[in-house]
Amino acid sequence: MASVNKNDGVVILGAGLSALGCARQLPGARIYEARSYAGGHAWSHEIGGFYFDEGAHICHSRDQKYLDLIFESAGKVKHVAISNVMNRRQGRWISYPVQNHLRALEPRERIDALTDFVEAQIERAGTEPRHYLDWCLNQYGQFLTEKFYALYTAKYWRTPMEELSTDWLSGRLLPTQVNRVIAGAIAKQADDQAVFAAFHYPVRSGYFGFFRQLYKELNITLNARAIEIDLSRRSVTFANSHRQDFTELVSSVPLPDLVLMIKDAPASVRQAAALLRHTQLLCVNLVIDRPRITDLHWFYIYDQDVDASRVSVVSNLGNEPAAAQKTALQAEIFRRADEPLNVAQMVENTIVHLTKALGFTRQEIETVKPVLVPHAYIISDLNRASAAQHIQEWLLAYGIHCTGLLGKWRFIWSDAALRDGVATAEAIMRTR
Asked: Which of 335, 328, 419 is nearest to 367 (CA)?
């Protein structure tokens, strides 16, 4: 009981995975979540007999302690040894990753891609990349950078490659292996080097099935949107006028939003917050009245006239009963936070192109449900690291701890988010 009382003064803003990790270490801590459900981006929406995540979510962690925890929570887990992933460009399917499957390109393109790749290995060897564009040119050469990676960056990150840093790449893109690239230009290769070749997914309830049980018995108040933080009074005021005092404050809400809540934040902190950028995501969720339209798990689309960047075949991820009769698809469309959205046009564009790509008809579409995710991914540009660090150092001086992807404004996977919450709790306990 003493430990519970000791944590009564801990207030956690946001109920995502980092908040979950923190609260589990601090029994009695109070979590306040602006939305009507906990889970953050790990939440799964039930639509038409399937559970659709907020964008593509799979578990590819190798942290056995983490895996044991979430597998027990999920109960039944589907383990996929080799993911089935493809690229789509100009109406053609190309194995993923493209640099290992150049044989699928037209002969002229194959020659250009391989020539530029080899030249890059010779001429750019040992060159330190200044930004993401340099990194791609070093790794893949001019042709693949311009015809694939630049096109996808424009759709996914909505930011010029030379404005992006390289600190987000680990675990997302593969460094090249010369022998694989050359072999793939000559003959068909095994599809065994996707970034996420093996993955795990709950049999039921979508990605949130990994965490649902872990939220039980936590002190969570939903529909509680924080609007003001008073550092002198050590209190948070919510949109419903409720005010909560705190001894320690943990924030997993978006870092720029947190700064805007704080009364009398200095100009330098507000200026740093204004530099932080992110994308928003429109998930176009479709249920098709036909089973197993494709065996793919997901695919990437490079064509600029197609709004969607990535399409997940939700019905192939878990083992929901509805998958025996129907196919569930999720198309992801990214825009920067400052770009307008025409949802109706985006949905129509998605339907037009997916019916062509996967061979189903409009008449077979049973459910269409767009879901907007206002904070999708942080844009890891050249300003991000220094701006985020400046803000967090100032906050920490006032005893405010930032945690998680949006709280730290740094790209991390789900397992790292949970661990970051645990580390935040441990830091709080050390200062007592």
From this structure: 328
